[in-house]
Prior knowledge:
This protein has helices at 23-40, 59-71, 86-95, 111-119; strands at residues 2-4, 12-21, 44-57, 76-83, 102-106. By secondary structure, it is α/β, with parallel strands linked by helices. Strands 1-2-3-4-5 form a five-stranded mixed sheet, with helices on both faces. Strand 1 and strand 2 (12-21) form a beta hairpin. The longest helix is centred in the first third of the chain and has 18 residues, at 23-40. The relative contact order is 0.18.
Amino acid sequence: MFCVMEGLPEGVVGIEAVGTISGDDYDTTLVPAVEEAAAEHDKVALLLMFGPEFQGYSAGAALDDVRFGFSNFTSFRRIAIVSDNEWLRNGAAAMTYFMPGKSKGFSVGDLAAARAWIAEDD
């Protein structure tokens, strides 16, 4: 499931992935949180945390992840991916070449740095 992170500045959406992510998690948590922030701000910053409790995606959720990325492609000014999985962090760095905003990967131990970076103005 996706859990909304508290204590972030306006215009910053923080989501923690816990357990196995399903397609319903996009519809009930991630998409509404991003849409709400986008309605109030020109661009949204997104902090996604994949900590030790993250177990993976269901088959349907993988497709929803791709759909979410394409449908919100220009909505983000920054995306921070927090994970100890190197492929997730490297994916964040690679997104910089494909999206208009900035993206960066952080390890779980660097969550405070990720929170500071995601809140910066561009």
